[in-house]
User: Which sequence fits this backbone?
């Protein structure tokens, strides 16, 4: 080995040491600023953390792409889904008049809202794409109340970090961080393409998170919990998705 | 097919820089350590991306053009393979098991590792002269005539000189440059264009491709081009001597005598 390559070797060694130390510091900072996803453990933690951290920094104030009404997919696709529980069918028979969205956790005024109450809040809409992790997609006009409006109504406490949301189907729950929960395009959606939200598309109430993949847009929402930690929910991975092998963060 | 041949490149330009300065008793490394390490990390990541990418495609083996596409819309084309989703009309009576969860985790993790590895390689190539000396065609080769000569010589199936083992020939250089500076950037770009969060911050990445489904279709074709490169690359390694070339990429040493012993 000649002098030049020895010097190179030492240089490479120093760079590697500095890199490892830098990674350690980066990991501490990422933890501090909430850039580590709840499913960061295990062999895929590196990739998940890099994706979540970089996209959190890049997309803090970005808006999902919106489309013109001529781009709305006709007919709208209703994905296949598990059979609905009997309690859903009873509520459906009553025109969803008794549907309730309860909110608890780190809030000043826990409450339960009827659909009529949610619709009395300022209604917003956006024409956005819903993308399934499988590869298909469609564009629809989504109508609802921004989630942050409802959260403001119940008073979110300062150390809140996540909003956990539950479907009437007990096996189906997910969560988003406060950046997505406070995002103006994140809706509790109750309408679609100028009409009621069809049951096939998640009616009467669906979480709509347009900057993430379809599976974060949980259908038939009945319950929200605002929390500082996801550890006590399920297996502590943030949602039902990682428990069946899918990433918690789905901004990809 | 005969081994590809280097044309017109003076021998001195094709040997590793350290060869001339090293004492006569040491055999110079055919490939620098960084080139070898990044080569094999890239190989592993590419294979992981290929397997997981295939798994993801199986869940919806239909391709579209424009912004949206689903089972209710007409595809641009479809692959005649079974699907891992019952909703897809695949023509097969059975549904394959869903492997998308770990496939997606591994796909994105491999993508991160290969992108960071690629960045390291490109920085190395720029700053150490690897790009100028070993990848860009020699000055005398930068003409259509030189290219034509190279093609003609190859068609004559002549055995390449031993110095061939010490440098990339013209076709190799062009192929590697194309993969590094065209196909890899394209596959990264079309991949990012499918991310709803990334395009919310940089909508031009998807709008310039004609839509999210167009990006997905292009991602598929660029991946096919990379697979084609891989097949030709491995075939060439076999033709040139699998063990000597593979050992050179692992240990750095090659069975061929050092270029200093050749006039």
Assistant:
């Amino acid at each position: 080995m000649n002098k030049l390559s020895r010097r190179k070797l030492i240089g490479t060694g120093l760079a590697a040491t500095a890199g490892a130390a830098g990674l350690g510091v980066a990991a501490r900072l990422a933890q501090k600023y909430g850039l580590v996803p709840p499913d960061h453990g295990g062999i895929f933690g590196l990739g998940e953390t890099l994706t979540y951290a970089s996209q959190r920094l890049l997309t803090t104030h970005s808006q999902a792409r919106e489309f013109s009404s001529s781009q709305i997919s006709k007919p709208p696709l209703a994905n296949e889904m598990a059979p609905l529980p009997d309690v859903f069918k009873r509520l459906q028979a009553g025109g969803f008049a008794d549907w309730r969205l309860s909110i608890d956790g780190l809030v000043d005024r826990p409450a339960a809202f009827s659909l009529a109450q949610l619709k009395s809040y300022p209604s917003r809409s956006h024409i956005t794409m819903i993308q399934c992790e499988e590869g298909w997609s469609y564009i629809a006009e989504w109508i609802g109340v921004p989630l942050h409006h409802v959260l403001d109504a119940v008073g979110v406490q300062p150390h809140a970090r996540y909003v956990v949301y539950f479907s009437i189907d007990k096996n189906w729950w997910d969560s988003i961080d406060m950046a997505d929960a406070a995002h103006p395009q994140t809706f509790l959606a109750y309408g679609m393409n100028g009409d009621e939200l069809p049951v096939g598309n998640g009616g009467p109430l669906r979480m709509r998170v347009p900057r993430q993949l379809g599976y974060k847009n949980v259908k038939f929402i009945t319950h929200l919990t605002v929390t500082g930690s996801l550890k006590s929910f399920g297996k502590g991975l943030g949602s039902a998705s990682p428990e069946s092998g899918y990433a918690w963060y789905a901004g990809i | 097919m005969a081994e590809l041949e280097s044309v017109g490149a003076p021998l001195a330009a094709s040997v590793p820089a350290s060869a001339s300065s090293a004492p006569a008793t040491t055999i110079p490394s055919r490939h620098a350590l960084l080139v070898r390490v990044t080569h094999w990390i890239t190989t592993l990541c590419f294979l992981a991306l290929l397997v997981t990418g295939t798994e993801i495609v199986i869940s919806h083996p239909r391709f579209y053009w424009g912004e949206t596409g689903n089972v209710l819309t007409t595809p641009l084309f479809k692959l005649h393979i079974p699907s891992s989703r019952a909703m897809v009309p695949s023509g097969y009576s059975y549904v394959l098991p869903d492997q998308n969860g770990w496939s997606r985790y591994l796909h994105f993790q491999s993508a991160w590792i290969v992108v960071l590895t690629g960045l390291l390689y490109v920085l190395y190539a720029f700053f150490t002269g690897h790009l100028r000396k070993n990848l860009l065609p020699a000055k005398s080769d930068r003409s259509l005539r030189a290219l034509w000569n190279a093609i003609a010589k190859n068609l004559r199936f002549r055995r390449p000189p031993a110095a061939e083992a010490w440098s990339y020939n013209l076709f190799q250089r062009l192929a590697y440059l194309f993969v590094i500076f065209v196909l890899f950037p394209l596959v990264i770009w079309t991949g990012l264009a499918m991310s709803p969060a990334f395009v919310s911050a940089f909508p031009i990445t998807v709008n310039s491709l004609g839509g999210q489904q167009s990006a997905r279709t292009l991602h598929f074709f660029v991946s096919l081009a990379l697979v084609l490169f891989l097949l030709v690359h491995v075939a060439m390694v076999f033709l040139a001597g699998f063990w000597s070339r593979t050992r050179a990429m692992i240990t750095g040493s090659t069975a061929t005598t050092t270029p200093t012993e050749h006039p």
Notes: Chain A touches chain B through 44 residues (CB under 8 Å). The mean pLDDT of chain A is 93. Chain A is about 30% helix and 25% strand. Residues 67-243 of chain A form a domain with the Sulfite Oxidase; Chain A, domain 2 fold (CATH 3.90.420.10).
